[in-house]
Write a structure and sequence with these properties.
alpha+beta; elongated; ten-stranded mixed β-sheet
Length: about 270
């Protein structure tokens, strides 16, 4: 029995749709970028730009593409995976976004106790006109101590946890210019001190004094991280948010540098 393919019907309204597809698909993946490996459940969005004369797209094929091409997730394979997707979906433009937490072992500064520090990772890949662009976002926390508070106080200074997000962008042959582990380490190097999942009393002493010796505004953190990316010649964006401890507001800073065509994550 032949079943009708309604998606293939001609649409006569003449309106192209920028994005059509599936969102919020949770699927197990094995991530391997040659530097680190992670396994977990990622949340996928897969969309296409739908031509004006096509009524619909084949959304079931998008799940098949996740299963066939993206379960074993290697960033360098995105150009091939998205080319396969464009061919199977018969479109010129495909976008794949995914988000998943990843974890790295970090060592406390005095006790050397190890524990896993989790960071948020997002990948947004776009294929159009036989070219692929990949934006990789890593977000994690640091400690920041206010330079102004330190300068005007007889002792002590207010400090807080800060959320730092770094997005780097690669294209085609240089699709993945900065691996996730390096981005995670770079973020932890800005601010007044890294944060640690496990600290004993000697560690707390070291972290507290290290932060006091290295005060940093959100402006300082954004500039330091951007400078490190500029030295590598990587297109990037940085956002920093201080969850302020003595104000009723947060402090924020952001910067964008380099050439972008992929829309960055909306919470940058």
């Amino acid at each position: 029995m032949a079943l009708p393919d309604i998606q293939e019907q001609v649409d006569e309204r003449g309106i192209e749709l920028d994005r059509v597809g599936i969102a919020g698909v949770q699927y197990p993946v094995r991530f391997n970028d040659g530097t680190s490996r992670h396994a977990g459940v990622a949340t996928f969005d897969v969309t296409v730009t739908l031509p004006a004369d096509r009524r619909g797209t084949h959304m079931s094929r998008m799940v098949e593409i996740i299963h066939d091409e993206l379960q074993d997730l290697e960033p360098e394979r995105f150009p091939h995976a998205l080319k396969v997707a464009a061919d199977r979906l018969d479109v010129d433009r495909v976008q794949v976004g995914l988000a998943m937490p990843m974890a790295f072992l970090v060592e406390a500064p005095a006790s050397s106790k190890e524990a896993w520090q989790v960071c948020d990772v997002e990948l947004e890949a776009t294929y159009v006109a036989d070219q692929t662009e990949l934006a990789v976002t890593v977000g994690t926390d640091v400690t920041s101590l206010c330079p102004c508070s330190k300068a005007i106080s007889d002792y002590g200074a207010h400090n807080q946890r800060s959320r730092v997000r770094l997005t780097t962008v690669g294209r085609d042959e240089d699709i993945y210019p900065l691996d996730v582990a390096t981005a995670f380490a770079m973020i932890r190097s800005v601010g007044s001190s890294p944060v640690f999942p496990l600290i004993k009393r000697p560690d707390e002493r070291v972290v507290t004094m290290a932060a006091h010796d290295r005060p940093a505004f959100v402006e300082d953190m954004a500039r330091d991280l951007s400078q490190a990316c500029r030295e590598r010649g990587i297109a990037h964006s940085v956002s920093v948010r201080n969850f302020e401890s003595i104000h009723s507001h947060d402090a924020v800073a952001s910067i964008l540098w380099g050439r972008f065509s992929t829309p960055l994550p909306c919470n940058q």
